[in-house]
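Researcher: Quick one. four chains, 272 residues in total.
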Amino acid sequence: MAYRLDEQIGYILRLANQRHASVFNKHSDLGLTPTQFAALVRIGEMGSCSQNLLGRRTAMDVATIKGVVTRLKAKGFIQLSADPGDKRRTVVSLSPQGQDVLDQLHQFGARVTEDTLAPLNKEERKVFLDMLKRLT
Amino acid sequence: MAYRLDEQIGYILRLANQRHASVFNKHSDLGLTPTQFAALVRIGEMGSCSQNLLGRRTAMDVATIKGVVTRLKAKGFIQLSADPGDKRRTVVSLSPQGQDVLDQLHQFGARVTEDTLAPLNKEERKVFLDMLKRLT
DNA sequence: GGATGTTTATTAGTGTACAAACGAATATAC
DNA sequence: GTATATTCGTTTGTACACTAATAAACATCC
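Model:
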């Protein structure tokens, strides 16, 4: 059997990611990227936390979360403050505007997942998500 | 049911991609990135072709394939030439060194796919790859 | 309480990834 | 055979993503 790029898991994962990004951008009205979306939703789940912890809980490198936080701050969705108990830390929390859009983000996210998984039926989606999670 | 980031297909896909990249880099001895690997294998499949066509066949943007070709050329795996019939085109082909490592690349790629899919058994892999392809 | 080690954040450098705009070359329409 | 459209490659700008190095703050051990 000849080796084929189209059967490589890494290549197919890249294609699936591209399609998801395309679906995401098609529906996005808030001007967020998938990464910024993930960080914002996670802050909503966790409440305020340090920039470093936020990076770990969203699987982002320290350098990556730094840029994401900078851009979310510039867009007005989050606010930063000093941690009174630890001078190393920058505490990240939702701004009032960030709080306001949280429900909207959840609905948006659900729609993106729905559209991305559209080629699979209900039963397949469950099986697929389960297997995909095991690969992480 | 509360909305959760950990159930978002886009987020999980990103995690799976991260794990694949990690497996790829752990085994890589040729100093290639997954993207460079994909381009090189594709040239091996197609023979020489234009830079633009190579980009389309590896799902890379014109600006992206430009950088990838530049770096593969710098590493000595490919060579560039002018298309005698179309002055717009840059023809990309494997260098002798690129030809030499092709078999090695195939074996390497098979091992990366194997290791990345390790959490799934034989039957599951088939089902998973089939469903993943439908999402592209 | 002082040496040691860890955590947190920043910076610099490399490599995807995409959009937009551009000029040159080619193809098509009429 | 000329106007129009398309293709090809390049460049600019923004946004991840990771490595490595650095410095400040904190924790621990003795």
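Chain A touches chain B through 46 residues (CB under 8 Å).
Researcher: Thanks, that's what I needed.
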